[in-house]
Amino acid sequence: MGESSPPLRYVDIGINLSDPMFQGTYHGKQAHESDLDDVVKRAQEVGCAKFMVTGSDLVESAQAIEIARKYPGFCYATVGVHPCQAKLFDEYPGGAESMIQELRKLATESRDSGLAVAFGEIGLDYDRLFLSEKAPQLKYFEAQLDLAVELQMPLFLHSRAASEDFERLIGAKLPQLPKGGLVHSFTGTMEEMNRLVALGLDIGVNGCSMKTEENLEVVKAIPLERLQIETDGPWCEIRPSHASAKFLQGAPELPKSVKKEKWQKGCMVKGRNEPVAIVRVAHVIAQVKGITVEEVCEAAWNNSIKMFGLGEQL
Question: Which segments does the entry list as coiled coil (predicted)?
Fold first, then answer.
């Protein structure tokens, strides 16, 4: 790289910073002190200049907003209720209507104060119907899409094993959403990806999006103008068993990682993904597509800023 090359800039569009693991808590047990500041700093040091902190229910959305407040101009929140939590609407004190009201209030206030940039994580998940059945998922995905249209917020979307219903519901609303949306942590088929892109949606890629050879073929085919990148930490790390691992040759080294019980300052935790690893996601995508990491980063950065703003102008 010549000296004139600008440093790489990343947006991690899907990071679950409100997860207790970033406070040092695993399965309800405290293993080490909170290292959230270190996690954020490590990511900033490799050029990760913007985070979108995922909200997946009312409580988590409020936590995501607090994190955005703590790291202004760097962290931004999404506000919404994940399909696996759809049953919470009917269980809410005062019923679903009052939960929708709460959601509207939270989204409006955080959008107006510049802390929330997307409505989500919303969608459908037919892989885990034991968490929330189909009927409430469909009903409250639609209700939340209506809210997003009302508030004119771009969408942060989740679709698992539900492509037909997902595309039907989203297709009906997209014409009313000029900024469109992003299907995050995409693991679907080539046909699904092509249909989503044809609808005008962006595709979010992380370690889980690149587990199999079939996944890699899909990633290779995602148009650059529709690509955004994420870690989805603390989940979705790139593992040695993944098809993507063979493309890690020459990828930036990650900080040393240790078991949570042996945690020390400055180290990553084994099995806990964090945003510094976005450099490896971009590296693998570049290898798979046969282009430079610079091209991947520039396209993804522009796509994220165009859709979500994140306090930047293009």
Answer: none
Q: Is 283 annotated as a binding residue?
A: no
pLDDT for res 4: 54
35 is in an annotated binding site: no
Comparing CA positions, the residue from 229, 232, 234 lying closest to residue 288 is 229
Quickly name the fold that domain 10-308 has. TIM Barrel (3.20.20)
Q: Is 232 annotated as a binding residue?
A: yes
> Which pLDDT belongs to residue 180?
98
73: left (phi over 0), alpha (psi -120 to 50) or beta: left
Digit-coded pLDDT (tens) for 204-235: 999 999 999 999 999 999 999 999 999 999 99
Q: Binding site annotation covers 121?
A: yes
Question: Rounded to two decimals, what is the model's pTM?
Answer: 0.97
The Cα 80–Cα 149 span in angstroms is 13
List the domain boundaries for the chain: 10-308
Alpha helix segments (H runs only) across the chain: 36-45, 58-70, 88-91, 95-112, 134-151, 163-173, 190-199, 213-221, 278-289, 293-308
